[in-house]
Amino acid sequence: MTELDTYLAQHYLDETQLAAAAAMGMDEIDALIRAGLVPAPAYVVDDGGKVHSFVFGAMAAPGSRAGRYFPPSQLGWIAIARQALADAAAHETDARARLKAQFTSRYAAALATLNLTTWRLRDSFDDAGTPLAEGLRVRTDSAWTYFLNGTFSLCVAHPMSEAHIAWKEVLQEKLAHTSGNGSKTLLPQRQAQEMHALIDAYAAAAMPFSPVEYALSSRKRLVEDLRANMRVSDTDLA
């Protein structure tokens, strides 16, 4: 097994495992993916020794086992999608529209809480916490797109939960801004302590990333590298 095989086996289900656990044929699951009801795989390893993801594109993965890989929590979303199809048929409505409305509503609610407690989202809420319709719509529509194309399945620890996705995304936004995208490493002691706590929270919310793309990942830049390079300013030590 390659290092990528080990990572994928630890964190993902291949298509055979997913179909068996869902008690469905993979052709049925693929139909849900094509209909925009279920996320695409996080990773696809081809027979030519490359791994593909929406986030990083094609990368060399010689010797790795070919297949498509999905987070185990996708099983829960498959059940939600199948129920949405049943409800849509009963009420003559559109299942994809119902799922998108559910996802974006829950995601927006999570963002509203995070705006008040964690990081000001000035494009989406005013100073009183009232939603700014257009800015919030851009955020929620973007999240729905990334959800379906498998981005969150690659980078979020709990990628089928709107609240957990929002938590990871807002933490990354806050951490990137306050650290200068990982370049601001000399800090007064109190700020350094706050930064370490923020890094810890983000690390818990994000995936570890596979060994193939780790060097390019936000986790390397905003967790391991930032932790290693952070220093307390001399004036704070005096």
Describe the fold and architecture:
The protein is of the alpha+beta class. The chain contains eleven helices and seven strands. The protein has helices at about 5-10, 15-20, 25-35, 75-90, 95-115, 135-150, 150-155, 160-180, 190-205, 220-230, 235; strands at about 15, 45, 50-55, 55-60, 65-70, 185, 230. The strands form two sheets. A five-stranded antiparallel β-sheet has the order 1-5-2-3-4. The protein has a two-stranded parallel sheet with strand order 6-7. Strand 3 and strand 4 form a beta hairpin. Helix 8 (about 160-180) runs antiparallel to helix 9. The longest helix has 23 residues, at about 95-115. It is flat. The mean pLDDT is about 95.
Strand content: 5-15%
Number of E-type strands: 7
Shape: flat
- How are the strands of the biggest sheet laid out side by side? 1-5-2-3-4
Structural class: alpha+beta
The DSSP helix count reads 11
**Secondary-structure element sequence?**
HEHHEEEEHHHHHEHHEH
Head-to-tail CA distance between termini: 52 Å
Mean pLDDT metric: 95
| CA radius of gyration | 20 Å
Spans of at least 5 consecutive residues whose pLDDT stays below 50 are none
